[in-house]
Amino acid sequence: MNPLPTIGITCGDPAGIGPEIVLAAAADPAVRQACRPVLIGDVDHLRRTARLTGLGSPIEDLTEAGPNAIAVKDVPSVPSNLPFGADSAEGGEAAYKSLVAGVGMAEGGEVESLVTAPISKRALHMAGRGHLGHTELLAEMTGSPWSLTYFTVKNLRVLFLTRHLALREALDSIDGDLILRTVERFCSVSHMVGLDSPRLALQAMNPHGGEGGLFGTEEIDILAPATAKARDLGFDLHGPIPADSVFALAMQGCYDVVVSLYHDMAAGICKSIDFHGTVSTTLGLPFLRFSVDHGTAFDLAGKGTADPANMVATVLRAAGYSSSSAGHRSAAVPAADVR
User: Fold this and answer.
1) Which of 77-86, 127-136, 236-245 shows the lowest per-residue confidence on average (mean pLDDT)?
2) Pairing with 211, which of 6, 136, 200, 321 sits 20 to 30 Å away (CA)?
3) C-beta neighbour count of 296 within 10 angstroms
């Protein structure tokens, strides 16, 4: 019988709900049956959070943790008087140090995958750590030339073609080269998420796929030629398929993954199906990274009312991939950056 995978879980911004949802997830019976969770953050702050939220499980340093305790890789960085519910330089610095420690553990093989709790870009900026988001920070820390965002919820898998861009900028950035790069990159690492020869469906841009050019010509000028070229190169890409049917077809099993053109189409569909069940996976790093689909929720922090369901689902997803994909680590394919 294989030992349970060890999953590292960063605690995110200490002023947000990250600490309480990671504690709740680490104590969840389903999580503990699926993996060995190791929290990465300030152990004293986690103990203070546990007292505030009523969590009864013992919290111990990783080097001393017994089998029934929540194990923590201690990253001392949170002032004892840090208030919940507000951005601060101290909170941003603590989140940054937790992430650095998590990357080191993942790259060093101490954990098999990394799960991240939410951070605040504003707090990171206040701490002098720039304004990059989680995904961009991880790519920078690992020296990865590119990364992809991949959402899973129930039996739907969605790959983002573009991410955090204004809609007009996102649509203007879509061309055949971007589609081909994204498909090639995904297929180079898709084995890490259990897909050796994925059937991909490219979402159309315009209503009804453009109706032969009546509602826009991007399908004719860009998307269909890129699909044909991808197929010539050996990739199982289909489309473009109208957005009002492609996700339903994928959920029925016609395709393994939908390549969605812009952020809110991909995220909106997934979160509407099951907000707490949607898990974000970052591909292209030297290890798999998983994230909840929500933010710091400062308004809920420290009250013990934050729902840990999405964090539980995220850790279980990480454990499932780690258990079924031994030796899944893979260097990212060198190539130009893709947004």
Assistant:
1) 127-136
2) 200
3) 25
* CA atoms of 74 and 98, how far apart (whole Å): 9
Q: Round to whole Å and give the CA distance between 310 and 86.
A: 22
Q: What angle do CA 319, 62, 136 make, to 5 degrees?
A: 55
> DSSP secondary structure string, 14-45?
TTSSHHHHHHHHHH-HHHHHH-EEEEEE-HHH
Is 50 exceeded by the pLDDT of residue 328? no
- Residue indicated by tokens 């060995």: 36
User: Residue 119 has which token pair?
Assistant: 């951070």
Q: What is the DSSP letter of 280?
A: E
- Model confidence over 206-245: pLDDT tens digits? 999 888 998 999 999 999 999 999 999 999 999 999 999 9
What is the chain's mean pLDDT, rounded?
A: 91
Q: Which CATH number fits domain 155-273: 3.40.190.10, 3.40.718.10, 3.40.50.720, 3.90.550.10?
A: 3.40.718.10
φ, ψ for residue 150 (rounded to 5)? -135, 120
Q: Which residue has the tokens 């199982």?
A: 236
By DSSP bridging, strand 289-291 and strand 279-283 are antiparallel
306 versus 327: which is more confidently predicted? 306
Residue 310: φ, ψ to 5°: -70, -35
* CATH fold for domain 1-144+275-339: Isopropylmalate Dehydrogenase (3.40.718)
- Measure the CA–CA gap between 30 and 33, rounded to whole angstroms: 5
The Cα–Cα gap between 257 and 222 comes to 20
The position carrying tokens 């060198």 is 334
Cα 169 from Cα 297, distance rounded (Å) = 28
Beta strands in 214-317 (DSSP E): 237-241, 257-260, 279-283, 289-291
pTM here is 0.88
